[in-house]
Design goal:
With about 240 residues, the protein is mostly helical. Helices cover about 75% and strands about 0% of the residues. It has helices at about 15-30, 30-45, 50-60, 65-80, 85-95, 100-115, 120-130, 135-145, 150-165, 170-180, 185-200, 200-215, 220-225, 235-240.
Amino acid sequence: MVTEKEKIEVKSEDYWTWYDRAQQLEKEGYYEDAIIAYDKALSIRPEDYWSWYNRGCIALEDLDNFPLAIESFNRALEIRPDDYWIWFRKGETLRHLQHYPEAISCYNHALDIRPDDYWSWCRRGDALRHSGQLENALRSYDRALEIDSKSFWVWYKRADILRYLGDYSEAIHSYRQAIAINAVDDYAWYNLACCASLIGDADLAISHLKQALYLSPINWQLASTDPDFNPIRDHVRFQALWH
């Protein structure tokens, strides 16, 4: 069987020949050759949205070539400035580059087009969290949860922010919601135990810590020195965990 990789030297000035070849090369995992084929297609039809979009997606998702992805998505946006997927993918690229303000702007554009899109609210929350805008991040996560209340990671990230802000009771609620979705995540159990300790609820903290220790033995070492457990460290039941 002759693969598209082996046929790449065939000469053609037909757009569809290069576009179809690029799609097949991508399917076969020859991502750099797929980019070359899309470039050939674009040399024939430089205003083709799909070639720019697919080129950007390969650069982002398969090659981690973020500058190439940005270039491709910018060209696609010149052709379709109101396309949700381009704004979202460009936001993803900028988030990977840690260009959070620009990423947030892209997610905002995406949400102008699809205001009920779960992933845009979620990724917007991530970018806001990394840029230190914690209250705004919470609002984005809350909006994402209105759309999909069964998202473990959004509940978990929401809880982490609340814990950082010192709102331990609300953080406990969010960790519990996360655990109701994924009961085998030891980090959620551990962080829930930390929050319970910080509000002085020794019984709740110890019961959740036991579950975290059961799920992952590495938590024994963490808990032995974690200052979050200082409020209950002298409690007889906490001491009993190590004896």
